[in-house]
Design goal:
Elements: H1 25-36, E1 61-62, H2 80-98, H3 102-143, E2 146-148, H4 156-163, E3 166-168, E4 174-176, E5 179-181, H5 182-185, H6 194-222, H7 231-238, H8 249-265, H9 272-287, H10 291-294, H11 297-316, H12 319-330, H13 336-356, H14 380-410, H15 417-432, H16 436-439, H17 442-450, H18 483-506, H19 516-540, H20 559-575, H21 579-589, H22 595-610, H23 617-625, H24 642-645, E6 658-659, H25 665-674, E7 679-683, E8 691-696, H26 697-710, E9 720-721, E10 738-739, E11 750-752, H27 757-767, E12 771-776, E13 779-785, H28 786-796
Parallel strand pairs: 1-10, 6-7, 9-10, 11-12
Antiparallel strand pairs: 2-5, 3-4, 7-8, 12-13
Helix pairs in contact: 1-2, 2-3, 3-8, 3-9, 3-11, 3-13, 6-8, 6-15, 7-23, 8-9, 9-11, 11-12, 11-13, 12-13, 12-21, 14-18, 14-19, 14-20, 14-22, 14-23, 15-18, 17-19, 18-19, 19-20, 20-21, 20-22, 21-22, 25-26
Pfam family, one: Voltage_CLC
Family: Belongs to the chloride channel (TC 2.A.49) family.
Protein name: Chloride channel protein
């Protein structure tokens, strides 16, 4: 055929002239700058005259770029391979310019260190936001119970210790003369008076409702993305999804404010997950200041990975755990340089939070433990039991929460978010206040459960028959239970059950809601109960074989250790975290001695939970919301082929393509108007179906608009060429032609129709591609997108293939 003459005859294995190489790297660099719309670092587009794209000087019209549009639209996926190629070309251009002048060398130096500048700023602001949120949440939590009359801005601890007149007693636990409970402000003095109890109860419930209402109104009015934990969305975005506004300025501001409100309201949620979202908002804002990251979505995600590490660092005071959390749970692409930047960012954030000292204890968190008593080999059995408990709790919680969230989506309940938040807040306050342990702020409860009981602890489960004027090396600090501890043995289980049930309904509300702290609270209560039971067993039966030599060091059982192990087990069962969780727990508590018990509980918890399903709570919410997340940790074990998945199928209309030299401007404009595809294959001809390359929707639309606007002679019937071979002379009566070779991607990812889908899935995971073309003997057959892969996996897993919403 005549079309075959267009195939290069120079011996190169290319399908068409669109695949031939350019004269030198400079030409390629200039064309890529126009094509991708990227702006060189700290400079605009090159102002020198570019050589004509078609290689001639005949003056024929060709697209020269201009102001490029945004590369990706909202709710679309990015092409990692293209973005990284753009970055390499930009890096080469900067390196070339840096050798030409001192100013270019300065630009090149700043280009090299810009990543460290971004992570430094992210660490500073993430630590500052976390410190402010911690201080505000602690104050609002105490406001529900009373107020510091002389200085209302102080929380309970600051009020009592600053005034230096705190008294200790047995009857009313701890007396503070400067802190007034609400009933005292109403002239009631006797805490046993039913009127005093009623006033305190009503103030507790009223404050919780007011804070919750204000939080949900702010979220719905100003920043809808500020609700929830944010971690499922962050995982999806870091895998290459675009969600405009999720890391915006309003989201950062509203989430920070409402986080203080909902934690202060006492809802069964935590601020740790939302703090990761806050840190990523900071990362996104500062990344936009540097074009290297602001204009390249793939590079921007490296900064977001570092920011997520800083978020966990300030949430738990665990910088190393934050880096491992980002690596294990959050990030999709995590090169070695991102590891070092994440470490630096987490370190700076932890340093800033430590300098703020929001809790006044010289630690970044409340849960730091001071004891290092040894653990014994026989305790492995209760640690394993706690791991089993954590795994089973994770399975039950995940299923119940996902079912409730599914009901919220599919029923009318989702139409009334304010009512739902107020009802959950009302139920939480009404049911929490009567129990002294559920009445406590959840972080304070966990801190008390982790601690070892001492003379300063007047909480009920520390009520032992002890004499602190002497030290009995045989029994101290273990002792027989007193009424307060006995009462705690039924109050703590009620608090644990209430915490678990309320968290099921709370996680997913239209307010900032993390689940780390409530999940840890459930496990800590369960662990403390087991620790108390083991402690009392050792006291009552010290002659049992398992306790031989146990009391030689003066302490046999440490209930606080069991609380730590239980908290790690439940958190591991819910999230399926392992390595990062162990590191977070020992950084969180300072319990370096207890790494092995924590490892045992986390592994057992994950094994038990994985026996019922491998998805953690975050992966479950990703699937529930239909986010396009292709999990790189799961293997594809099916035997299907690319031909089974590609579009079009046998019953579908033929694939829409563009010929490289016969299409007109009007035809291409109609094609982009009538279809919503993001990629259009370019072929030699309809007869041969031999592939030349691909063009992308946004670039094609932009190029046609710019050609109409800026180039004379371009009309609807102008032919468009995607090849270097164009007519050299203008024929009278024929409209001026347009060359769009500069927007042609001549090296798309291609596979054959017999390629196993396991290989195709690995390509999408490891290369981060957006689409790949399917050929047979060089002829174009179809195309496979990321959506096609996800739908195919859903079909094989007997799920709804239409639940994924993205392009």
């Amino acid at each position: 055929m005549e079309r075959e003459k267009l195939i290069s005859g120079n011996g190169n294995p290319s399908y068409g002239e669109g695949a031939t190489s350019f004269a030198d790297d400079d030409d390629l660099l200039d064309i890529s700058t126009d094509t991708d719309g990227s702006v060189s670092f700290l400079g605009g587009l090159s102002t020198r005259r570019r050589r004509s794209v078609n290689g001639t000087e005949n003056g024929s019209d060709s697209y020269e770029g201009g102001t490029a549009p945004d590369q990706y639209e909202d709710f679309h996926t990015i092409d990692w391979a293209r973005d990284m190629q753009r970055y390499r070309k930009e890096h080469k251009a900067v390196s070339r310019r840096s050798s030409r002048s001192i100013w270019g060398r300065l630009k090149g130096s700043f280009y090299a260190v810009s990543a460290w500048v971004v992570v430094l700023l992210v660490g500073i602001f993430a630590g500052a936001f976390a410190g402010i949120i911690d201080i505000g949440a602690t104050w609002l939590s105490d406001i529900k119970l009373g107020v510091c009359k002389d200085a209302f801005w102080l929380n309970w601890e600051q009020c009592c210790w600053v005034q230096n007149n705190t008294q200790f007693g047995n009857e009313d636990d701890i007396q503070c003369l400067t802190w007034f409970q609400w009933y005292e402000l109403f002239g009631l003095q006797d805490p046993q008076d039913w009127r005093a109890y009623l006033v305190s109860y009503l103030m507790f419930v009223g404050a919780a409702l007011l804070m919750s209402a204000l939080a949900v109104l702010l979220v719905l009015a100003f920043a809808p993305y500020a609700c929830g934990s944010g971690i499922p969305e962050i995982k999806t975005i870091l895998s290459g999804f675009i969600m405009r506004g999720f890391f915006g300025k309003w989201t950062l501001l509203i989430k920070s404010i409402t986080m203080i409100l909902v934690v202060g309201a006492g809802l069964s949620l935590g601020k740790e997950g939302p703090l990761v979202h806050v840190a990523c908002c900071c990362g996104n804002l500062f990344a936009h200041l540097i074009p290297k990251y602001g204009k390249n979505e793939a590079k921007k995600r490296e900064m977001l990975s570092a920011a997520s590490a800083a978020g966990v660092s300030v949430a738990f005071g665990a910088p190393i755990g934050g880096v491992l959390f980002s690596l294990e749970e959050i990030s999709y692409y995590f090169p070695l340089k991102t590891l070092w930047r994440s470490f630096f960012c987490a370190m700076i954030a932890a340093f800033v939070l430590q300098a703020i000292n929001p809790f006044g204890n010289d630690h970044a968190v409340k849960f730091y433990v001071e004891y290092n008593t040894p653990w014994y080999f026989f305790e492995i059995v209760p640690f394993i039991l706690l791991g089993i408990f954590g795994g089973l709790y994770g399975v039950v919680f995940n299923r119940l929460n996902l079912k409730w969230c599914q009901l919220r989506i599919t029923s009318k309940l989702g139409k009334y978010p304010i009512t739902e938040v107020l009802l959950v807040a009302l139920a939480t306050a009404l049911l929490s206040y009567p129990n002294p342990y559920s009445r406590l702020n959840t972080s304070q409860l966990i801190a008390a459960l982790f601690r070892e009981c001492g003379p300063q602890d007047a909480i009920g489960f520390c009520d032992y028959n002890r004499t602190y004027t002497r030290t009995d090396q045989h029994w101290y600090p273990s002792a027989e239970a007193q009424p307060g501890l006995i009462a705690a043995m039924w109050q703590l289980p009620l608090a644990m059950i209430l915490q678990g049930i309320l968290t099921v309904f709370t996680f997913g509300l239209k307010v900032p809601a993390g689940l780390f702290i409530p999940t840890m609270a459930v496990g800590a209560i369960g662990g403390r109960l087991m620790g108390i039971a083991m402690e009392q067993l050792a006291i009552e039966h010290p002659d049992l074989l398992i306790f031989t030599g146990c009391f030689d060091s003066g302490k046999c059982i440490t209930p606080g250790l069991y609380a730590m192990v239980g908290a790690a087990a439940t958190l591991g069962g819910v999230t399926r975290m392992t390595i990062s969780l162990v590191v977070i727990m020992f950084e969180l508590t300072g319990g370096l001695t207890y790494i092995v018990p924590l490892m045992i509980a986390c592994m057992v918890s994950k094994w038990v939970a994985d026996a019922f399903g491998r998805d953690g709570i975050y992966d479950g919410h990703i699937h529930l919301n239909g986010y396009p997340f292709l999990d790189g940790k799961q293997e594809f074990m099916r035997t299907t082929l690319a031909y089974d998945v590609m579009s079009p199928r046998r019953t579908d209309p033929p694939l829409l393509t563009i010929t490289m030299d016969t299409s007109t401007v009007e035809e291409l404009e109609n094609l982009t108007t009538e279809t919503r595809f993001n990629t259009y294959p370019v072929i030699v001809s309809k007869d041969s179906q031999r592939l030349v390359g691909v063009v992308y929707r946004k670039e094609l639309i932009h190029a046609l608009k710019q050609a109409r606007k800026n180039q004379t002679g371009i009309v609807s019937q102008s032919k468009v060429y995607f090849t270097r071979k164009v007519p050299k002379f203008q024929v009278p009566g024929i409209p001026q032609h347009l060359s769009l070779l500069s927007i042609l991607d001549g090296s798309p990812v291609t596979i054959t129709d017999q390629t196993p889908m396991s290989t195709v899935v690995d390509m999408f995971k490891k290369l981060g591609i957006r689409t790949c073309l399917v050929t047979h003997n060089g002829r174009l057959l179809g195309i496979i997108s990321k959506k096609d892969v996800l739908r195919h996996i859903a079909e094989l897993d007997h799920q709804d293939p239409g639940s994924t919403f993205f392009h």
